[in-house]
Structure formats: C-alpha cells, structure tokens
Amino acid sequence: MSVAFVKEPNEDQVEVLPDRDLGTEPNLVTARGLELIDAALAEGEAGLAAAREAGDKIAMATLNRDLRYWRARRATAQLVEPQAGSDVVQFGSAVTIERDDGRRQRFRIVGIDEADPAKGLVSYLSPLARGLVGKAVGDVARAGPGEAEIVAIAHD
C-alpha cells in the first residue's frame, strides 16, 4: 500500500463535533430564560479562554460547539411576557393543578432551554403545557394518564 493512503495522526487535529440541534420551533423565552442564555454564553466564553490558555484542543472544540448553539439561541430568542391580568394560562404562567388523586402541583410554562420538569418548569412544547394554555381556573386538562383541574394561575 502506498504511504499516500495512510492517514497518520496529527496531534494538532481535533475531530469536528456535530452542532447541537436547534430544533425548528420558535425560540420563545421568559426573562429568566434569556438571563440563563446570557449566563451560558459568559460561562462558555470564560471556559474557552481557559482552554485556549491551557492548549486543551478537545475542550476548545466542545466549547466552540456549545457557544455556536448558545449564540444561535440568543440570536433567535423571542422574549415573551405573560399578559398581566389575564385569566387564562399562557407562556410564562405558573399554573397549579389538582390531579384526580388529590395531589396539587405547580408548573411554570417556559422555553425549551429553561425547561426542567423536576423543578416544575415545563417546555411550552410539552403535552402538559399544550393542554393547559388557553384554559382558565376551573377548567380540566389532560395531565399524564389522567386529568387535572386548574386551581390557580399566576403571571408573576
């Protein structure tokens, strides 16, 4: 075999990491969500500077990929504030529901990057959020395998 066809490792070469998926849905964000994006950008920039100084090419590739994601998310972010005084669930609302078994749970409807169901932050694209948006106190919505009644709505 010819040496021309042998790929020798190059210590300066790092594999190109695939970009993170940006999705196709609108990038709706709450004020807090926008702050989180800005914090991720600042953290990424600081990490990239440290990786450059250390000569860590793998960390630089990872951070550059993540920064491309956060820059794109920041550029497409659409800040949505809930309408004060509204009596229906909307993006940014905190909704308290009572399930069939009597459990009460509170969820805030947020953007994709801010979502954290364990903390009660659900993406506006989730089935639960889609079932709640546009409903008022006393309305019933699908919540998992059962139904739940909306008992409170806050737009704080």
Automatic annotation (TrEMBL):
Pfam families per UniProt: GreA_GreB
Protein biosynthesis keyword on record: yes
Domain Transcription elongation factor GreA/GreB C-terminal: 86-143
PROSITE patterns xref list: GREAB_2
Signal sequence region: none
Keywords: Elongation factor, Protein biosynthesis
InterPro entries: GreA/GreB_C_sf, TF_GreA/GreB_CS, Tscrpt_elong_fac_GreA/B_C, Tscrpt_elong_fac_GreA/B_fam
An MF annotation (GO) of this entry: RNA polymerase binding
Any single biological process term in GO: regulation of DNA-templated transcription elongation
Protein's UniProt name: Transcription elongation factor GreB
UniProt source species: Aureimonas endophytica
Gene label: greB
